[in-house]
Amino acid sequence: MKYRIILIGPIKTSYIKKGISQYLKWISKFQKIEFIEIPLSGDLNKISPEQYKLNDYNKIEKYMENSINIVLDERGENFNSIEFAKKLDKFQCYGKKYITFFIGGPLGHHQKIYQSADLIMGLSKMTFTHEMVSLFIAEQIFRSFKINNNEKYHY
Ligand SMILES: C[S@@+](CC[C@H](N)C(=O)[O-])C[C@H]1O[C@@H](n2cnc3c(N)ncnc32)[C@H](O)[C@@H]1O
């Protein structure tokens, strides 16, 4: 099984880039993980919000096959880190090729994505940037491996 984090939009902030690379490196000691940045869907002033989100969805739909799909959304279900770790552990037994985390673009996700979601998960009720969510989820995935392997994690 392989983990994937898929996000709409590039990561431009250097300290976030650095943080994500660090967590991906640490996670890879436990599990293969891939970080995929999908280019933005054009100019927001030239296409309707509906079309913009649909363009995003069309680019990521292919990643939903043979995968446990976790859609990140501030309106989603909240877990503490132990609950999240247990959930991931359970998902690993489902026999799918991937566990994929989907992070939306500036307008959020198109509604179509929710139909194929195995889990809609919120990190908080607050809205964060796609960059921050990428960093937070990478850290929580790493934390979940530490928890599931009974390893100490001090920070
Ligand atoms: C800038 S936000 C988009 C906000 C957009 N207005 C909406 O209503 O979805 C970009 C993406 O970050 C993720 N995100 C932002 N805050 C989040 C939170 N608290 N929990 C989980 N995901 C979040 C979601 O995937 C969202 O689509």
TrEMBL record:
GO molecular function, one term: rRNA (pseudouridine-N3-)-methyltransferase activity
Binding site for S-adenosyl-L-methionine: L72, G104, L123, S124, K125, M126, T127, F128
Pfam assignment, any one: SPOUT_MTase
Listed name of the protein: Ribosomal RNA large subunit methyltransferase H
Cellular component per GO, a single term: cytoplasm
Localisation: Cytoplasm
Subunit structure, as described in the record: Homodimer.
Record's catalysed reaction(s): pseudouridine(1915) in 23S rRNA + S-adenosyl-L-methionine = N(3)-methylpseudouridine(1915) in 23S rRNA + S-adenosyl-L-homocysteine + H(+)
Task performed by this protein: Specifically methylates the pseudouridine at position 1915 (m3Psi1915) in 23S rRNA.
HAMAP family: 23SrRNA_methyltr_H
Upper taxonomic lineage: Bacteria, Thermotogati, Thermotogota, Thermotogae, Petrotogales
Claim: Iron is one of the keywords in the record: no
Species name: Oceanotoga teriensis
